[in-house]
Amino acid sequence: MTVPRTLPQWLHGMVAPTLMLWLYAVAFGIASAMSPDGELQGRADYFSRAALAFILASWVTADARKRQLQLCYDYDGFVFFAWVLVVPVYATTGIGAVTTCCCYC
Description:
Blueprint: H1 15-34, H2 42-66, H3 75-81, H4 83-91, H5 95-104
């Protein structure tokens, strides 16, 4: 994927995960607003949780590739299933990751 020259240097290699996260946030907000009690029900809740885990796993993988870190085998699968614990630990491993993580918050 060719990145336009107008993007900041820290965003290079992180375009796809960033766009996925923004699309997820918009879709989640719209779906929650349309729900009668403000919460997703049934399959929508399940797919929403799976999508968030997938997006965070792709973010960790893209960030590690950008920073040229060697992750262990199937680390992205580990992030997918244990993202609540793994992503905060990974995000505090360096200033570059913390900066990138702050862009997601």
